[in-house]
Fold each of these.
Amino acid sequence: MRVIPESELIINADGSVFHLHLKPEQLADRVVLVGDPDRVSTVASYFDTQECEVSSREFHTITGTYKGKRITVVSHGIGTDNIDIVLNELDALANIDFSTRTVKPAFKQLTLVRVGTSGGLQPFVPVGTYVAAEKSIGFDGVIYFYANTERVRDIAFETALKEQLDWKLSGLSPYVVPADHSLIEQITGNDIIRGVTIAANGFYGPQGRELRLPLADPKLNEKIEAFNYNGRQITNFEMESSSLAGLAALMGHRAMTVCCIIAGRVDKNMNTNYKGSLTGLIETVLERI
Ligand SMILES: O=P(O)(O)O[C@H]1O[C@H](CO)[C@@H](O)[C@H]1O
Ligand SMILES: O=c1cc[nH]c(=O)[nH]1
């Protein structure tokens, strides 16, 4: 059996995993992921009991119970590269024996729901709407570093996407990953729109925002808004759902992202005071996870 070297699975002196600083016994099977470390405290304010709180860099974690369910809420910061760290470390906590550095014989499946904020790309997803990423389009490249990604990607959707967007950006090849179907069914009621979410590898240029720097393809957002594949339209932009769905599917975990729209990219409006509108979504996810 392969023993994972100290430089690959990095365990701190206190027995916790390198970035998250969590120990295996501190992780619940149900995990709520959020971008903002402060949002962790908001989610945990609904908990009936709290067993641990750990902070390290942008990774803030609280494990507790909500109506009898043991739940971990963890922040991942911004970007798909952070998701690579968080997913690998959560999976290691669940599925690698830290004393022998070997993969445990029995696989433990995690349920991972990201609750985020997002920019809306269609008139039917105005500011305040909740949108689940039934499919995620990755403008990032994290997934390409892992083997056998074809088994979790929707290659036909990718082909249609590159054709309709007349993809011009060299060095980048957008990929498409569906969220876990059973989890989408579990979390998404009539109060949440099922959408197609782009995880962009930046907030400004990669989401078509122009401040001082001109864009390489100024028509890209127009093409994104007009895209239609078998009746599916692209609904929103955020920055993590693709690598979350992709890595979780490769590892065998159930994962999805659901976001509250805070920027209306069609009407060009913005809700900077969005924290109140996120609480309804947090309550819904805690009830259904
Ligand atoms: O509010 P969070 O969860 O961070 O989500 C969104 O907000 C951040 C950008 O402002 C990105 O992380 C994006 O995915
Ligand atoms: O427009 C937005 C708003 C929140 N998060 C994003 O990534 N984009």
Amino acid sequence: MSTTDIQIRDVSMTYTGKNGEPISALQNINLDIREGEFISLLGPSGCGKTTLLRLVADLLQPTTGNISIRGQSPREIRLQQKFGIVFQNPVLYDWRTVRRNICLPMEIMKIPRKERTARINDVLELVGLQNFGYKYPFELSGGMQQRVGIARALALKPEILLMDEPFSALDEFTREKLNEDLLNIWSKNKKTIIFVTHNIAESVFLSDRVVVLSPHPGRLSAIVDIDLPRPRTSELREKPVFYEYVAKIRKCFEGV
Ligand SMILES: Nc1ncnc2c1ncn2[C@@H]1O[C@H](COP(=O)(O)OP(=O)(O)OP(=O)(O)O)[C@@H](O)[C@H]1O
């Protein structure tokens, strides 16, 4: 039985709108995430997925409630640099090569040069870009740029990977390929991953559990265990059991 990694207790988040009006983004979220688990936050636009991810990452503070990560606060975990964060848009510096883009956060963290070089080589291989280290971002496809974003996050050896719709700007083929690649990477180091998506099939394919959020305000409406064998490959997408999970989760949104 694996231990609880992230404990979210009675978390609510209310933003203040332009005219001072309260905007309730999340209400009473309770969730335990296990160490090494791959969990997806799924829901329609505006249901608070990004807000929840940002609360875990200590980029926002909850209005009420508490988040505890391995017995520590999100701030303590952030200050220990245990988070790796991958956004929808990887934001690469055009004037830096792939290698130097991956290197930048490590330079900021003052990781010694030799160690940086070793880590860059490792992560480039992990994401399948070993031959592209000396290219510039404009020479890469969107999928390759997203791989660089993932490599950059992994180079910091995070214990918890937070991914906010990392593949949503990509075409279906590239997204499916990167889904498989991500599972491969995860299977090698089994870090806890929280993955935000509004794509049901993607959440089923990747996750151990799918957390379904309903909007206005965001509430936890279901948690679905995805009891499908691993390793998962693209053939899984053709199987009836896969469609059954997709249908089951789609049902959670009926009437929402
Ligand atoms: N800084 C902010 N100020 C005011 N309201 C905000 C702010 N950020 C988010 N919101 C509101 O909070 C709610 C949840 O937003 P959030 O971005 O977390 O949703 P989401 O599920 O990630 O949406 P999407 O899938 O479109 O990214 C929305 O109603 C949004 O308008």
